[in-house]
Amino acid sequence: MDHVLAKIKGHxxxxxxxxxxxxxxxxxxxxxxxxxxEYAPDHNLDEDSWFKIDNFxxxxxxxxxxxxxxxxxxxxxxxKDKFSSINLLLGIQGDDFxxxxxxPSLFVTKKMIAFGEAxxxxxxxxxxxxxxxxxxxxxxxxxxxxxxxxATISSIFKGIDELYKEATKEEVAKFLEEDFIELSDGYxxxxxTKPNRKRIALAMDTLAALPxxxxxxxxxxxxxxxxxxxxxxxxxxxxxxxxxxxxKYLLYGIEQRFYTTPLGHEKRLANSVQAx
Length: 276
Fold this sequence. Notes:
Number of helices: 6
Structural class: alpha+beta
Radius of gyration: 25 Å
Strand content: 25-35%
Strand order of the largest sheet: 2-1-5-6-11-12-4-3
Number of domains: 2
């Protein structure tokens, strides 16, 4: 039997209530393994793809309701005066859990003209819009969570935003002290933007795994694609960085985002990558 729960905002001890019984809120979602991508903060999903987190029940941000056998008798009906306080819908459909974050814009009241024997003006009660596709789905049998946007679900699963790894101020400063970087024109760690702090976090992991003897190859690779974007001192193996845009191209190079098409030999920048 399917159920719909509602979580409300506020300071009361009870936050989750029963909203509907014997109702299916979302169409069943079928997601193949091929359509799932391990979460990466710089990956742009294809329209039919989903981010996934395997072994979700073992994660510190997993919800208690997902770790136990669901019992609808443990939830009381949501009082009418609390309808406007809903901030999350949870559809329990079979063994799977469908989540939708609720924002104020999803509460609507509309005036409509109805045509019967004569035209009449009608005003509907406030209604809550249910999206066609859930923000996240937990497949219990597979112990897997799938989602489209980490920002959307971060308020549902507290702490999950740790996946959005961003370099700290100290890590940014340390990275900019790398031997192959020469700062100029007053550019320093305080001027590094949030997107580049995210890219630095990824680049630091990449550099840590890169053998020292391959660094010269990395410099040559970056220079070959960014000759018009970055000034490179071959003698000292240093890239001059004087803007956030130049830093971005250096970071793309460290992640090997540049490539040449085998047919046509066109140089390109990959907006996101996925290991095969």
